[in-house]
Amino acid sequence: MTLTVPTWLTLARIALIPVLVVVYYLDARWSNLAATLVFVAASLTDWLDGWIARRYRLFSRFGAFLDPVADKLMVSTALVITVQHHHTVWMALWASIIIGREIAVSALREWMAELGQRAKVAVALVGKIKTIVQMVALGFLLYRAPVLGLPVFLIGEWLLAAAAVLTLWSGWEYLRAAWPVLRAGEAAHTAQHASEQERNV
């Protein structure tokens, strides 16, 4: 298996996850800035590996599998450490919605892939907007400190709430697009099972 440049960038994003955690918990005045910079760097590699793959047609099955995994790992880690630092009901709720949706959509895509209909749950516009809002929110939450009197953390909280709403919306869009295929597949499976039982009688 040959590793392309986009795949190396994706692997680098995964390697930055423990760096984010360690830097975030350092007992230093600049730890919040360092953690934010690590998260921003990881987010930029997400954009960069996609751009390079499209620009130079450096696609691979392994890269296609690994890229969304790296994204989900980084976002989940940032959410967990943020909730640990600011453990309110609302923060935990937004984090649970976002992480839960990622798990559900990953399972849905895997199921659709088994039915040969993965394209039905391709990333939609609302999903891309959700990702942008989510990344900005997490950057603000990781930084935490006010800037020029602006309540950075509070802004991050509201943006995360908006990201959670967009998360539910995009999840519903994926499910709505996949539902006819899932119903047809379930009906075919039920008919096949009934036929097998009749033959065994």
Automatic annotation (TrEMBL):
E.C. designation(s)? 2.7.8.5
Q: Which GO terms describe its cellular component?
A: cytoplasm; plasma membrane
GO BP annotations listed: glycerophospholipid biosynthetic process; regulation of developmental process
Q: Give the first-level EC class, as a single word.
A: transferase
The regions listed as transmembrane in this protein's record are: 6-26, 121-142, 148-169
* Location in or out of the cell: Membrane
Chief site of localization: membrane
- Could you list this entry's UniProt keywords, alphabetically sorted: Lipid biosynthesis, Lipid metabolism, Membrane, Phospholipid biosynthesis, Phospholipid metabolism, Transferase, Transmembrane, Transmembrane helix
Q: Which Gene3D superfamilies match?
A: 1.20.120.1760
Which pathway does the database say it acts in?
Phospholipid metabolism; phosphatidylglycerol biosynthesis; phosphatidylglycerol from CDP-diacylglycerol: step 1/2
Molecular function per GO? CDP-diacylglycerol-glycerol-3-phosphate 3-phosphatidyltransferase activity; small molecule binding
Question: What membrane topology is annotated for this entry?
Answer: Multi-pass membrane protein
Q: Which Pfam families match?
A: CDP-OH_P_transf
Q: Which reaction does it catalyse?
A: a CDP-1,2-diacyl-sn-glycerol + sn-glycerol 3-phosphate = a 1,2-diacyl-sn-glycero-3-phospho-(1'-sn-glycero-3'-phosphate) + CMP + H(+)
* UniProt KW Lipid metabolism keyword: yes
Required cofactor names: Mn(2+)
User: Which family, according to the similarity comment?
Assistant: Belongs to the CDP-alcohol phosphatidyltransferase class-I family.
NCBIfam families linked to this entry: pgsA
Q: Identify this protein by name.
A: CDP-diacylglycerol--glycerol-3-phosphate 3-phosphatidyltransferase
Q: Which lineage is the organism of this entry classified under, starting from the top rank?
A: Bacteria, Pseudomonadati, Pseudomonadota, Gammaproteobacteria, Lysobacterales
